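Running log. JK asked me to keep both predictions on one page so they can be read side by side. First protein, sequence followed by its tokens:
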Amino acid sequence: YDATYKEGENFSLLADTYEDIVAQFNREMGHVANIPGGVLIERKVFGSPGPVYTPVAKDRQQAAVTFLNEYVFTTPTWLIDERVARLLTPSDVAQRISGMQTRILRTLISSDKLLRLLDQETRFGAEEYGVNTFLDDVEKVVLTELTSKKPVDFYRRNLQRTYVQELIDK
């Protein structure tokens, strides 16, 4: 905050810096959301041993879901700095964070990803991260309030609504 202003000037440096931080966070979390159902690619030529495409290890895929729970689905309140928000926008702060959570969740449970998980499970068996296990893991992190009985705030309610609607749509 203190490094992003000059006395007597507007808030454009603060706005640009904040936008860059949010965009980078979004980008990085999108990369994590693409780990489940992902494949490792090893470029080869004819005659090279081993596969070109290998599914990401099951434990790494599960760790990605856990990571997203900790850093995205548990609302990243550090992105909501009231000192900054009151200078840059009259509203839209909550919707912006909620929208980011929704985008990451939709990436995480995309139809393409579910089909890749199903394909991997069918081809390689139980050692792979199957669709049912994946959806159970996602459900546990998105619907934690069902077991914890904690109050559901705006962010969690929106995330849960999105999850249920995405499943209905599929």
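And the second, directly underneath as requested:
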Amino acid sequence: MKNKNSLIAIIAVFISICYFRLDIHNFDNNDNAGFLTWDNFGYYLYLPATFIYDDTELENLDWVYEVREKYNHPAALYHILPAQDGKHVIKYSLGTSVILSPAFFVAHTYCTFSEKHDADGFSSPYQNVILIYAFLIAFIGLFYLRKLLLIYFNDKITTITILVFCLGTNYFQILINNTVSPHSILFTSYVLLIYLTYKWYTYEKVKDCLLYTSPSPR
């Protein structure tokens, strides 16, 4: 197989990320997969607020406190700022929620018809489906990073670059401890942007210009 070493490299890195992420000691502790917390809670909050609680202006924060207590979300509720007339705003941009929305809708459809799990936006099906989706986003980023590097370099240099980048920077740490963070989404978005930009200037096909239409997660 041509360029097999770089392919083996991204597969090995991806498997390692999945293994160490699922091996974290507090994974699935108290029905909390550990990633809809801290800043990620704010990035994700648009989805349940809009499609479950019909409270986009966050006039009633009772449901927010309830789900945080139910799923053992740590830290203070610093994600929301007061606005006028008793309303509130989420201080994070909504791009991450838009990108995570396909996984959210899959999980919500399942939970709506499930007698075992609550359709509250945070029960284990939501967290597990979104985690799998985040893994997919990470793999797409690695896959197109390899394709982009192979345009300019041979397989050996591409393999070394992938390994140095993934293991020698904070990329590996971010993907293990903060899988659903905007960092991973941004990385994949930038790789796709650069790759499609190259294709546009090389082949000038309209589809390459139109494919990259996802919003920024920040």
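Observation for JK regarding the second prediction: Residues 214-218 have pLDDT under 50 and may be disordered.
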